[in-house]
Every structure is written in structure tokens, then in C-alpha cells.
Design goal:
The structure is a single chain. The protein is built from 21 helices and five strands. 64% of the residues lie in helices and 6% in strands. It is of the alpha/beta class. A hairpin with a 2-residue loop joins β4 and β5 (462-469).
């Protein structure tokens, strides 16, 4: 029998080409119509904070005082310094990071199970609308997904070969994850529980010196934003609400945007768990146990803390557990005993994955994000030199688009409107445009002697008004 050619990652030539094809398909889906959807307000915050003209110290200060750790904004700042800002380049960093999740999940699937499961997991991630949508968003979630997978991969290597090299690589991955999103703490907590199990049941496997080093690395990883982490943890009010049953079901559906795919994916994941435990394959049962612990902590802890401490449960924060779902779905596919049935299930899964992208949900053809761009374009078309003000705290976010189209951020804030009225920079009879993003205009008009002349709607909950100062 002729010897099979192996690649550097243990794949035959056929399997290597298949992985490359999956990566190309995933990249195309992530870069296709990358600038079709308008940036929504959170994306505009990211772009404003890391805009090419911002100083690094200002970017850092604005980031760490916000909700999330600074790594993504730092990377975006350098990215925009190199490539400049357009609607495409602003999201291209996330598209690149989202594409890298595909080979990363392959390596993790290969580590936990086998290379066939890794290839199937890569396929599931490449076609999944959840991973695609957040790879087309100028936010940290594509980076969070990538580093979650990489952190687990390096952690498993450390468990397998506990040495200074592996612990150093894992420490770097852990530090990057913790500086991307607070939910990275949950991922590290899962890994701590697994390492604790290894210490108790496999004494001597992990040296104390390595654990001390890991603890020091963990503490050092938190230092860039520890003060702000504690400040955010001490908040007693927040915009989120504790999740109800409807929100939990929504978080399940949003992973697929297709009820049939939810059923098929859920069935395959359950079948994967069944095969891991019932077929008495020791390595697979350990891998499934790791994945279930990862999923349980990542899903249950946010729910509990949302009720007991501060609401923090959102669908996008669950990015840390979606790799688990993909791996279990892939392992379920891998363990289907009949080759013909297995091929049919995989083809069905692929077809159903395309439906929300192009048919049912029409991700690439329908406006599904807040139309901030369209609102700004309409305001510019009707402004004719009229002063523009924004109620609430959205001035810097909307000025990203004003700066993009006009070369300068011309919108002023609510406080600046009050100051201009007080200082008579705008006089009775003068007209102005007011953008209202929080439906607070009625109260503002009653308190500040404004007359509404026109109302422009059609931008979801947002609208803008042509107003006049009363005589």
C-alpha cells in the first residue's frame, strides 16, 4: 500500500484542499457586501474611539472607561492608522479575525476528537450566520470568538505537555482573551476547573511552579483595566435587563435564524453528546465533558449573575459558547454510522445554513441594522447649512458619518444646543435640525421654546426634525 502524504497538520492532500476550500468559502461570506449594512451606534462608537485622528492615549482612556477591555480597540486603532477609514476597512479587521476562527476551530476539533470532526466544525463555523454577522461588525466579538478557541487550544496543549513553553503560550493567549472581553473570565474559569481536576486526579501532572506562573500571568493580564473592571462591577444600574424565557429562546434562535436548523443542529449536538458517553470511547467522553462544562459555565453563570448582581446576558456575549455548539454538531455528524445518511445530513445542514443568508432572513439583501447612515444622508440632503443637533449622547457616534461624507463632524450635542440658545448663537426665528434617537424630543421642546416644523421618519426608532426657535 502506498504511503499517504501528510501535511504539517496531519492532513492528506485531499483534506488540506478541503480545509482551504472551506476557509475560502468562509472568507467570501464574511467579506461579501461587507459595507452593505449601515454601521449601528455601537459600531460608530468603536470607529469614533479608534478613528485615525485619535491619539493613542485618548483611545485608551475612552475604551477602558467604557464597558469592554481595550484589546480590540487597540488593534482597530492600528488597523485604521494603516488602512484609513471607509465603511469597508472599518469592518475588514473583524472579517479577517472571523475568517481565522475557521482554521482555529479545525485545530481545536482535531485536538478534542479527530481531524474529520475538525473539518466538519470548520464547515459549520464557515457557514454559520451568527459567526458571519459578527465578522461583519466593527466590534470585538469576532476577536472574542477567535481568542476563545485559541485559548482553549493552547490550554489543552498545556494539559497534555505541561512545560514552560506550553504554559507561556497559553498565558499569552489567556492575556489576550481577558483583554478582549469580560466574558473571557468565564472561559479561564472553566479552564481553572479542568486544571484543578487534573491536579486532584492526576497528581504530579501539573507542577506547582507552572500553576504559580499561571496565577501571576492571570493577575498581570487584568492590570490594564482592573480599576475599571471593579468600577463596572460596582454599578447598580445598567441598560440590560435580566433575561426571561423569551430572551433565552431568542438567543438560541439567533445562532441559526432558521428553526429547522435549530432542530437539526440541536439533534446533532445531542447525538454527539450521546456518542461521547455511550460508546465508551475514553478520549471522546473526556472531550465531551470538557465541552459541556464550557457550555454550562458560559451559559448558566451569566444568567445567575444577571439576577443576583447586574444584568449582563446578551446573545452576542454568548459568543464564548458557540464554538462548543459547533464542535458538538460536528462530532454528531462525524458519528453518524451510515455513510449515505451522513452525507445527506451534511448536505441538508449546508443547504439550511445558506437559507437565512440569502432567502428567509435575507441577511445580505435586507437592512437589519440600525440605519444610522441613511439618517445622516437624509439629514445632509435637507440641511442646506442649517445647524444640526443630536439629543442624548450620540454626537460623536453620528459625527463618524458626518465626517465621512462632509469631511468634518458638524453635529452638536444637546448641551451645546442649550448653550447656543443661552448665548444667542441661534436666535428666535432661526431654524435647526434635531436628531432624536431616544424619543426625548417632546419633553425637550416643552422645556426649551422650540417649534416643530417638520418630522422626518423611516429610520426605525430614530427620526429627525426641522425646528425653529420661538419668537
Amino acid at each position: 500500500m502506498s504511503q499517504v502524504k501528510q501535511g504539517k497538520i496531519g492532513l492528506t492532500l485531499h483534506e488540506t484542499l478541503l480545509l482551504a476550500a472551506i476557509m475560502v468559502a468562509g472568507a467570501l461570506l464574511r467579506f461579501y457586501r461587507l459595507d452593505f449594512q449601515s454601521y449601528w451606534t455601537d459600531e460608530l462608537w468603536s470607529i469614533h474611539t479608534s478613528r485615525p485622528g485619535a491619539l493613542f492615549c485618548d483611545m485608551w482612556r475612552d475604551t477602558v472607561t467604557d464597558v469592554h477591555p481595550p484589546l480590540y480597540q487597540v488593534l482597530l486603532w492600528f488597523w485604521l492608522k494603516i488602512f484609513g477609514f471607509t465603511e469597508f476597512t472599518g469592518r475588514a479587521l473583524s472579517a479577517v479575525l472571523g475568517t481565522l476562527v475557521i482554521p482555529a476551530i479545525f485545530c481545536l476539533g482535531k485536538k478534542l476528537f479527530d481531524k474529520q470532526t475538525g473539518l466538519l466544525a470548520a464547515l459549520v463555523v464557515a457557514l454559520n450566520i451568527f459567526f458571519i454577522s459578527y465578522a461583519q461588525e466593527a466590534r470585538s466579538y469576532a476577536l472574542l470568538a477567535l481568542l476563545t478557541v485559541v485559548c482553549f487550544q493552547t490550554f489543552l496543549v498545556f494539559l497534555e505537555r505541561p512545560a514552560w513553553k506550553s504554559v507561556l503560550i497559553y498565558s499569552i493567549a489567556m492575556a489576550l482573551l481577558l483583554n478582549t472581553h469580560y466574558y473571557g473570565l468565564l472561559v479561564v474559569f472553566v479552564q481553572f476547573l479542568i486544571a484543578l481536576h487534573y491536579m486532584v486526579f492526576q497528581r504530579g501532572r501539573i507542577r506547582v511552579a507552572l500553576l504559580v506562573f499561571l496565577c501571576c500571568a492571570f493577575c498581570l493580564s487584568l492590570t490594564p483595566f482592573l480599576f475599571h473592571l471593579l468600577a463596572n462591577a460596582g454599578k447598580d444600574t445598567y441598560w440590560m435587563q435580566a433575561p426571561g424565557l423569551g430572551h433565552l429562546l431568542y438567543c438560541v434562535l439567533i445562532f441559526y435564524h432558521n428553526q429547522l436548523l435549530v432542530v437539526l443542529g440541536g439533534g446533532l449536538a445531542c447525538f454527539g453528546v450521546y456518542c461521547g458517553y455511550m460508546r465508551k470511547i475514553e478520549s471522546s467522553s473526556k472531550s465531551v465533558s470538557i465541552l459541556l462544562l464550557w457550555f454550562g459555565v458560559g451559559f448558566v453563570v451569566p444568567i445567575v449573575t444577571s439576577y443576583l448582581v447586574l444584568p449582563n446576558f446578551t446573545a452576542r456575549n454568548l459568543t464564548i459558547i458557540h464554538p462548543v455548539v459547533c464542535l458538538l454538531v460536528a462530532y454528531g455528524m462525524r458519528r453518524i454510522p451510515n455513510r449515505f445518511l451522513q452525507s445527506g445530513v451534511i448536505i441538508t445542514y449546508v443547504v439550511l445554513s445558506f437559507l437565512p443568508l440569502f432567502v428567509t432572513y435575507e441577511y445580505y439583501n435586507k437592512q437589519i441594522k440600525m440605519p444610522c447612515r441613511e439618517l445622516v444622508q437624509d439629514v445632509i440632503a435637507h440641511s442646506d447649512g442649517t445647524a444640526i443637533y443630536i439629543l442624548g449622547e450620540e454626537k460623536n457616534r453620528f459625527n463618524v458619518y458626518f465626517r465621512y461624507y462632509l469631511g468634518k463632524g458638524i453635529a452638536k450635542s444637546e448641551s451645546e444646543l442649550l448653550l447656543d440658545m443661552k448665548q444667542r448663537s441661534i436666535s428666535p426665528g432661526d431654524k435647526l435640525i434635531i436628531i432624536d434617537t431616544y424619543a426625548t424630543l417632546d419633553k425637550f421642546v416643552r422645556l426649551n421654546d422650540l417649534r416643530i416644523l417638520e418630522k422626518h421618519t423611516g429610520f426605525w426608532d430614530m427620526c429627525y426634525y426641522l425646528a425653529q426657535i420661538k419668537n
